[in-house]
């Protein structure tokens, strides 16, 4: 069965190679027929999409470079578009093809296509698509797109492709222009991010004023989503670019858009989702500079975010982004902290902390609570002792306007008490664990003392021994530590580090299941080209998962049936041993790693099949999975020993190698030779034609022509050299 499957795979690979060779020949000999060349390019694209190795083979036979030259030299626009689309698809499928095409010459050609006024919209879209594929996850491509001036042309397209703020996507021409503009946005995003490129970020920051104009004048999702992605990735982890964005009023514009979308979110679900996208962009801007949160206080962004957090349609990932943004807003801004407290945000954070099972949400909520701890203490004091430093007069005005400020102080005291209680529970948990460790070390001594007393009273105190046994078991159980989940982190710096370890920008732009269309076909290529490719944003937020191993049941080997024991000392010892074993097996905190299987612990070490087998056999406690492996290996070895004893043979070489040796020799020990097959006249013609077209590529010639079965590449080489040595033989 396996042999037949391998033969089928080999046959498919052979057919794929033959098809690519024939299609390449068709491209070369159909230079005057644009339609045939387009059909051949579409077929090559389809083959490379179905087989990941097809692109490599197409590169080896020179097809990749030929298609690149064809895209540059062809006079027909439809051939250029199909050639560029084929190059992009092959490079996207295989990284080696991407590196082969990543040359300054190709970037210069693509720049010329984009800057040429005679190029139609679809040709420009195909050029942008190739640039996107070459630059994606490739620092060399990011450097070339800058050095060749291609990024400047892309920036110009970003400004000029869409001329009107009012988009009528039902119009075909406007829709094609919008697709080109969206592809340019995606390409600029990969030019600055993954890997991050500071120089490209500086160049793209010049587009911020134009992006602000679009955000102010157009609130359609088709515009806001690409622009927010571009802004967030351009200023990610770059303090200088973030300062420039704020200096041109970018953060104010985002705040205004967020306020508008939050008010619309009560009417439409799409506005709530779009508001989360803008929230992520705001977070990317202030994550490295918490002092910029003062700009947001003018628009009461914290209260808007809390109102958005209560929206029922949001999932846990979107709520995490909102809470994290609230944490960065309140990290170093007392105005935002007071806005959070006044909007009843602290009880909401505590509710999230106590009710949510999501670890990321709990960390973000704890981050917000620690940010507001100082202001909570201030609000819990009297009005005379409370001050906002520079904003003391402003606070008095607020106090005069709001009669219920005392209620806020009461809530502040309750919240502060709640936080301190959570911290005390965490401290008690650590103390209990330390006591538990000391207790476990003294368990054996207590057991020995108890057994001595039981043995002394065994003659006439059976009931007393039973009572003491029960009291001892209760005493042992009283030492069990209760797992108390401390929701509030006791170390503020540690919590801050945990939250900032995840790139806020990467956390911002994880939209699960959402794909961005990079390029689609125009009317000239809609019938034959599938020109829709997607660029999926990956979730960069790592999620930790704890692997819990079961405590293996002790295995007693080679045990024999024993008679019932009537000795009171032994009976009491068995009872207490069972209690201790049951007590140890219930602990999942500190003892669970000590009884893990050796095979599980050894993962990642340099082991081979022999040393790993010895390790498993020497382990007294094996998990279910490794226990099955050991038993299967033992059964196989025992069966192999029995077969060797029956055959009275000792094999020093693998069975497969011996089988192959037996097949390759006759019973007399003489090796078989292949049956000689003379070359026919047709085969000679095939040979000369192949050398004329392909040179001395004997394997390629062998695959391209129907030679006799059993013919090898070396046979073709020997035959050709013999024929060329004869003076009478002339190539047809």
From TrEMBL:
For the region Disordered, give the residue spans: 453-480
A Gene Ontology cellular component where this protein is annotated is: nuclear inner membrane
What CDD domains does the database record attribute to this sequence?
Answer: SANT_DMAP1_like
Subcellular location per the Swiss-Prot or TrEMBL entry: Chromosome, Telomere; Nucleus inner membrane
- Residue limits of the Myb-like domain? 675-726
Mind telling me which SMART domains this protein's record contains?
SANT (SM00717)
Coiled coil segments of this chain: 405-439
Q: Which GO terms describe its biological process?
A: homologous chromosome pairing at meiosis; meiotic attachment of telomere to nuclear envelope
- What does the subunit section of this Swiss-Prot or TrEMBL entry state? Component of the MAJIN-TERB1-TERB2 complex, composed of MAJIN, TERB1 and TERB2. Interacts with TERF1, STAG3 and SUN1. Interacts (via Myb-like domain) with the cohesin complex; probably mediated via interaction with STAG3.
**Its family?**
Belongs to the TERB1 family.
Per the entry, what this protein does is:
Meiosis-specific telomere-associated protein involved in meiotic telomere attachment to the nucleus inner membrane, a crucial step for homologous pairing and synapsis. Component of the MAJIN-TERB1-TERB2 complex, which promotes telomere cap exchange by mediating attachment of telomeric DNA to the inner nuclear membrane and replacement of the protective cap of telomeric chromosomes: in early meiosis, the MAJIN-TERB1-TERB2 complex associates with telomeric DNA and the shelterin/telosome complex.
Q: What is this protein called?
A: Telomere repeats-binding bouquet formation protein 1
| Annotated source species | Lipotes vexillifer (Yangtze river dolphin)
